[in-house]
Amino acid sequence: MTDQREMRSMLLESWLGFHELIAAHPEIRRLLFDPVTGLPTTPLLFPRIESLLEERGEISLLCLNVVKYSKIEEIYGWEIFDQVMREVATALERITGFELRDSDIVAELMISGNAFVVLLSPPRTTPGMDSEGLRQLACRVESRVRAELEQVLDPAIFPKFGCYVGCSTARHDERVRLERLVHKALEGALADSDSREASDAACRSERLAEIIAGGEIRTLVHPIHRLADLEIIGYEALSRGPEASEFERPDKLFNVAYDADMVLKLERLCRLRAFQAARELPAGRLLFINIEPEAVADPELRDIMFTTLLSDAEISPSDVVLEITERTAIADFCSFRATLEYLRTLGFRIAVDDGGAGYGSLQCLAEVRPEWLKIDISLVRDVDTDQVRRSLVASMVTFAERVGVSLIAEGIERVEQLQTLRALGVEYGQGFLFSRPQEPYPSDADVTPAL
């Protein structure tokens, strides 16, 4: 977090330097509007800021910081993040005249950034801005923008973002140049939004601890089909938190778990629930279980072989595929590979998730040498219309054939994608085209469509 703040401060300082350039070359003003939202950026606020400082001796502003909780661009494409930024801009426009005044000015911090600035008009009845009133305004704006976003964003997308509003006031000081004064005010408001995010994170960590302690993890399953005839060859066990909560999705669960140093505890609970559900796994089907890189060396994973967990579920290690997810980078491939080889000697097989995306996927493939490789949804999404994606998938098919890896395409949602993947030689796949994740274990008739 500290490195990010230092980088942000450096970018902000250089960005505010455009103020002097605008004064010398006013024709470049049009270049300082963000192309996604159409809003002005902070250098264009300087004339109004200068005027307020001269008239009132102070300025007050809000900074709304948009936070991403997962790899949005990699999974959904950059268009989704642009959509969120447009919706935030629209939300700020809608609350103008209510939480915000018509005379308040909304801008973006910088082009292609993730933060908005609201330069507030001065108070009408008091000589200066009341600090408590300013903080209450920030809370109201934050709450209203979140409510607006929840109404317009896809329910699967909304939980992947957060927005936090900070505030600050800067007072005129003849000894400090204008750019430095504005920089200090913006830094103060952004730091305030950071503190709100940190407080929120502490609450989320506390809630996650309660979920783990109470065993509030469910298992859904998603079938994996052989694409040629759509026969089900296995099921992926998917962990879910409490239904209709912000922790229902696994990306939120594990992002918070990493921040709170609770990955192993969460992983153990998810694995326990998956094996308990596997008592109903149809004979002859594989069970794919997601496992974080950090949990590969968990002694409890190895100890499963010597407990009744597998025997109670009536499955053997050879029925289980440990699917390595790449939410974080693998720091030590040497020890990681050695641990995986030990798990293989116990009978487990290995899959690598997010093929074609994630942290160091190519190195992960070379070091892990899995039996299964999943083609990331970001490549599958437009494989039928995008020549680049199609070529990348074709190269993965060639690679898989040469090294003896079985490919599974993730996120198949359209018949055209299925047809293209079949033509390219991808052997297995899963996705909403066939069925959505369900409580274990559905009948084959419920999850095998006639395509």
Describe the structure.
This protein has 451 residues and is an alpha/beta fold. It has two domains: 2-201, Alpha-Beta Plaits, CATH 3.30.70.270; 215-447, TIM Barrel (Alpha-Beta Barrel). The chain is built from 17 helices and twelve strands. The strands form two sheets. Strands 5-6-7-8-9-10-11-12 form an eight-stranded mixed barrel, surrounded by four helices. It has a four-stranded antiparallel beta sheet with strand order 2-3-1-4, sandwiched between helices. It starts with a helix and ends with a helix. The model has no long low-confidence stretch (mean pLDDT 88).
Walk me through the topology:
Layout lengths: L1 H15 L1 H7 L21 H11 L1 E11 L3 H5 L1 H17 L10 E4 L6 E5 L11 H22 L8 E11 L6 H36 L4 E9 L5 E9 L9 H10 L3 H15 L8 E6 L7 H5 L5 H5 L6 E5 L8 H13 L3 E7 L5 H8 L3 E4 L1 H4 L6 H17 L2 E4 L5 H10 L3 E2 L14 H4 L4
Parallel strand pairs: 6-7, 7-8, 8-9, 9-10, 10-11, 11-12
Antiparallel strand pairs: 1-3, 1-4, 2-3, 5-6, 5-12
Secondary structure: helix percent: 40-55%
Tell me which oligomeric state these chains represent.
Answer: single chain
Q: How many structural domains?
A: 2
CATH superfamily of the largest domain: EAL domain
Q: Kindly name the structural category.
A: alpha/beta
